[in-house]
What does this fold into?
Amino acid sequence: MKTFGLIGYRLGYSFSKGFFTDKFEKEGLTDYEYVNFELDSISEFPEIFKKNNHIAGLNCTIPYKQQIMSYLDEIDEEAKQVGAINTVKVIRTGEQVQLKGFNTDIYGFENSLMPMLTEKHKKALILGTGGASKAIKHILNKNGISYLSASIEEELADQEIRYEQIDESVLKEHLIIINATPLGTFPKVDTCPSIPYESITADHVLFDLVYNPEQTLFLKKGHEQGAATKNGLEMLHLQAIKAWEIWNS
It folds into this structure.
């Protein structure tokens, strides 16, 4: 039996578990399984290898994407730059187990967002400054797109503004708007980031990392203003496919 799994805190419904279980069934991989490993603390991480010697690859989600890094033997260069891990490759040599960390969110986000952009999309507004924004900032930098981040923290870092500073002039300048907050996620579907949606135009691209519901209130409000919109489902599919490639390479 080959075991793949997801490291997290309280996982509930897991996209990864559903995706890979379905994939294994469709491809007739009867000796493969995908397991959710709920950890109360990242210090419990080494224990899963003691209890299961068939682990062949892992995904990692919040709140452990950064904490897991100190438990790895090697980290991919791009993941190191981002400072977050969501995929762990398990390399076995006899009894020896080595762990290498990757960030496939980078691949998923880039290949989902970039096809939506044109020459006029030079600046982005990122809503949220949490862990999810790390891969976003990396890709925007990589593609020469400048950005501002909207923050609710007391102290603002460089390139950060407060939500109340987002006005028509900010939106006119930033034609890419990315929701990197959990606002709007099921079951709290009647919430969305507080921005002046009436200032959004048909030139805007709105990207929401949330994928459940399919159309969040954030995307609905943007769509009503004529903006191009996309949720985070394609990004999740792409990052999962990339993780599968890494595990099997």
Q: What stands out?
A: The CA atoms of residues 49 and 55 lie 7 Å apart. The chain has a mean pLDDT of 96.
